[in-house]
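Suppose a colleague, Dr. K., hands you the sequence of a protein chain of 518 amino acids and asks what its three-dimensional shape might be. Before reaching for any lab equipment, you can write down a predicted structure in token form. Begin with the sequence itself:
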Amino acid sequence: MTEEDLTSGLVYNYTQAAEPPTRDTRIEPTNAYLGSCRSLKLAMGQGCAKFNSRYFSQGVGCQLILALGIVRTFQNVVTIIHGPLGCASNNIGLAGFNKTARALKGKPAGDVIWIHTNLNESDVIQGGTDKLREAVLYAEKEFRPDVIVIGNSCVPGIIGDDIDSLVDELESRLSAKLVPVHCEGFRSRFVASGYDAAYHGLLRKMVDPPAVIDSVIERSPDEEERLDRIRRQNSRTVNLLNVGSTSYGDEVELSRILSALGLKVNVLPLYGHVDEIAKMGEAALNISICATHDDYLIGHLKERFGTPYVIDTLPIGLKNTNQWLRAVGRALNLTDETESLIRTETAQLTLALEPFKKILAGKSVWVGGGETRIFTTAEFFQSLGLKVLGLKPHNFDRFAVPMLDDMEEPETVAAVAAGQPAEELVYLKRLKPDLYIGHGGANGWVLRLGIPTIPLYGQSLNHLGYSGAYELARKAVRALLNTNLARKAAANVTLPFKDEWFESDPQANIKESLASVI
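The predicted structure, expressed as tokens, is then:
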């Protein structure tokens, strides 16, 4: 898939507005579909799946949480959560996660600092802008951060608090960059719109224009030599765009691969310093590993600075890592070097995977989670001899459509659902896969069915690149060779559902548009 294919018909140019468009209108995804991979591809082609909805939703995520998952990682940042006290309460649980990640990456550990405006019933009537102003000024005086991020939650969005006017009023009085993030959860059915909200604020307030070094002026020989050196360096500098689900091990592995091509790798924007983020427009190439996470950001960097990008696939397993690496090589005219590296890495990994294939062959697997990650993970295990019984992406959009063709069985179940753990258990109880791969929160439920599980990703895990493929296969083998935990969980911990629930039809929960009946 080329950059032109992905951007055809799209006009980014959204950063002149205070807030980004929702994904509902921008990329027309769906989060309610049940059928096969074959029928899902047809429904996406007809443009009808996007109209589906649900009679009932369980366990849906929050845009505010996803947006904060990006901005609160920046170095020396204070996050202000503008809303009632319950909003973003998971900051407490994730503070330790962020500090550990910073330490692993060699970044200053620092505290994860956030302030809450704690809107109450009176504020809902009178407005919460005064509380927000007080919080911003307090953050500047008390902590002297480089960046103050305002995460706008549902309540101030509903009552009409004008946080952008407040930003205009205050930013000239602050030393910190003041970044508004519109992540009101009611605006979209798709929680991934929270990524766009975070990057919208970053693009508007934190990314500087690239330094101009090519203006026609007379320079001394020494100055010309210095500028030539900068040009050469920038021509080999790439931004590897990390996401919340990439671990330090993943970043090390992908940096290793790219460095083997002679590239200088900046891993951004998560856990980045404000100065590093400001210079994102100066790289020769932006390299995405997750279209769901990155397309809004790299589209604008391309539009504003002309920076090309790679948004081909997620590098999990041999096929997709090679595909991802070839896209990078083509973009930088390094095709010969890339093919040489691929031959070496492929030979080593293929040999290392042989013992695992003997154990995994003939087993079955179900994969649930983010769309690009689960399809590439499923393809990898399929290549090791497992049968993919089903996939449950949180949402599904145009970026994942080509991945449907990688499924050997077109009738493999495709259950698109954001959350819906109870619904997923119905499929799993009926299909009884040998292995489940999914988010940590889902794995605890699935174990009670007696199905061994491994995590889809994790802070301490390496699942990307060539070494990640080896580790992912090794974890699957260990889970299948020792099923004691799953068997004991099923025998001793019950699920809170009646037998009638497991006999119900999951399709009945989906409200299909008339056009989507195939």
